[in-house]
Design brief:
By secondary structure, the protein is an alpha/beta fold. It has a single domain, classed as Ribonuclease Z/Hydroxyacylglutathione hydrolase-like (Metallo-beta-lactamase, Chain A, 4-Layer Sandwich), CATH 3.60.15. It has six helices and eleven strands. Strands 1, 2, 3, 4, 5, 6, 7 and 8 form an eight-stranded mixed sheet that branches. Strand 5, helix 4 and strand 6 form a beta-alpha-beta unit. The chain starts with a strand and ends in an 11-residue tail after the last strand.
Length: about 230
């Protein structure tokens, strides 16, 4: 078993470091966490074998964590021999399935057979990283300050930003609703969160078809986009 770090910087690459990606090696197969832009270039400089990548887990939907995914999916398909028909498993938050579908379909690309699992939060979750709760925080930004005019200006700006965030949330939902399965998409589950009755915390048990892995457990962290795992 080993770990190869392919990217360790956030937001944008530097001359010496790429954006987020790492691979865990188990018995010659690789399990990737995040797939930032130019991940394929980093793979070429490493001991990671593209054809042996079996599962890719995306922590959240910021571009520096998944912009490299569409191209890598196509390369994996080209690198595998005809005898290797094992589907590649993708795991990530709600929206990952639509991202992969739209990116591959609109670019007329054909990738490796895919199983795409999405991790869904409990219903009516009060999470400060959702667009709705971020909008709520901005709506109250105008409560601070001593000058009435300043408070009104802050409140107006917050209301405009809240409206923009709400519109983005609706567009996000529309993009998901408009996505349809790819020709090479062979399965996937919407995985409901498990809630701990004592602490109120929640997590997911990711389906694990590989007997070499006892389990994969994900849990949420607060961020500027919903649900980091």
């Amino acid at each position: 078993m080993g770990v190869t770090f392919l990217g360790t910087v956030s937001c944008a690459p530097s001359p010496t470091r790429n954006v987020s990606c790492c691979c865990v090696r188990i018995d010659g197969d690789f399990f990737m966490v995040d797939c930032g832009e130019a991940t394929q270039h980093q793979v070429l400089r490493s001991d990671v074998r593209v054809a042996k990548i079996r599962r890719i887990l995306i922590t959240h939907l910021h571009g520096d964590h998944l912009f490299g995914l569409p191209g890598l999916l196509c390369t994996i398909g080209n690198a595998r021999g005809e005898e290797d028909t094992t589907p590649l498993e993708l795991v990530g938050p709600r929206g990952l399935r639509a991202f992969a579908r739209h990116a591959l379909r609109l670019s007329y690309s054909h990738a490796v057979p895919l199983v795409i699992h999405e991790l869904h939060p409990p219903p009516n979750t009060d999470d400060s990283s959702t667009p709705e709760s971020i909008a709520h925080d901005h709506e109250h930004a105008g409560d601070q300050g001593s000058d009435a005019a300043c408070r009104q200006a802050a409140a107006d700006a917050a209301a405009a930003e809240a409206a923009a965030l709400a519109a983005e949330a609706r567009a996000f939902d529309a993009a998901i609703a408009s996505s349809t399965p790819l020709r090479n998409e062979v399965g996937g589950e919407d995985i409901a969160a498990e809630i701990d009755r004592e602490s109120g915390s929640w997590s997911w048990r990711v389906p694990c078809s590989d007997e070499r892995l006892s389990s994969i457990i994900a849990a949420p962290l607060k961020h500027t986009v919903p649900y980091v795992y």
